[in-house]
Amino acid sequence: MSEESDSLRTSPSAASLSESELPPPPAPTGYVCSLTEDLVAKAREELQEKPEWRLRDVQALRDMVRKECPNLSTSLEDAFLLRFLRARKFDYDRALQLLINYHSCRRSWPEVFNNLRPSALKEVLASGFLTVLPHTDPRGCHILCLRPDRWIPSNYPITENIRAIYLTLEKLIQSEETQDGFPIRIKAVYVVNEPRIFKGIFAIIKPFLKEKIANRFFLHGSDLNSLHSNLPRNILPKEYGGTAGELDITAWNAALLASEEDFVREFCQPGPPCDSILGQALPPKGLSSEAPCDDSMRAVKSQLYSCY
User: Fold this and answer.
1) Residue 43: its pLDDT value, please?
2) What domains can you pick out in the chain, each with its CATH number?
3) Which residues pair with 305 in a beta bridge?
4) Going edge to edge, which strands form the sheet with 302-307?
């Protein structure tokens, strides 16, 4: 709350004014672009985002939501809708469908999305299962580090890991620099210390992946020099042959916990029943909270996701 509004609440002269004499409340703050000139140019080239048309495009998507999905309980703020436009390169129809899918997934998978807030996931965060490295890669991509061997299945179900990943991605896209997918885009997946069976499994599923996605996976085994050809040593922690000191999970955990109120506001409010327009988006097979947990995933010791 601004100092001006604070003074209106406490000043005797203001309190003596009649309701009709009080000044109107300030209008909601509109979108303010925080992108650098370089990123504005990159968004124009890669996403077809034109700064002079940005608010017009947001309003067009807002109008579509109100007209075509009047029962969809969603934020209509500029910055929120802009995420979906950027994720679908300002194609209105595809952006609307992504927005619907986003809410459909949230409502159809309550064991992941209900009560989704950092304080509910302290055990996962403390385990070191995931963190975001403090330095970005040379392209400006954030690096999400997953360490499956830190998960002990007897401690909590796999859905808690999924919740922590989703929480992290939501936190990352609060910054405009990361808003071109998830709405977020995975630029690369670097897997190190993977067992032989993982390579065999990946070889089987790779033909079924889109070529663009398959080409973003890099299996390095124990060859850290191979990893460093993609991610320079000066941004990696010592555990991955880097020179940026030991891996520290405390800074990212603190950043998440400091966002508690944002997540409570977004994910912990009672919502309406699932609207028919959302359809049926079910969680991936085998990942429900009722699925038996085993130690198979712990064999994959570490993965680095470079996200932009």
Assistant:
1) 76
2) 30-108 (1.10.8.20), 118-188+230-268 (3.40.525.10)
3) 144, 189
4) 130-132, 142-146, 302-307, 186-192, 217-221
